[in-house]
C-alpha cells in the first residue's frame, strides 16, 4: 500500500502541473485575444 500511495501522489502532482500549464495557456490566449480586439477597435487605436 505504500507503493500505491506513492503512485497516487505522483499522479496528483502530475495532474496539478497539467492544470497549471492549462491555466497559463488559457490566460495567454485571453491576453492575445484582448490585444487583437484592441487593435481592431478604432476607439482604442492610437491613430484616431
TrEMBL record:
Residues 1-20 have a biased composition (Low complexity). Residues 24-34 have a biased composition (Basic and acidic residues). This is 17651_t:CDS:1. Residues 35-48 have a biased composition (Polar residues). Residues 1-48 are annotated as: Disordered.
Amino acid at each position: 500500500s505504500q507503493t500505491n500511495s506513492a503512485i497516487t501522489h505522483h499522479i496528483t502532482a502530475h495532474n496539478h502541473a497539467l492544470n497549471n500549464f492549462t491555466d497559463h495557456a488559457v490566460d495567454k490566449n485571453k491576453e492575445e485575444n484582448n490585444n487583437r480586439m484592441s487593435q481592431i477597435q478604432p476607439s482604442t487605436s492610437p491613430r484616431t
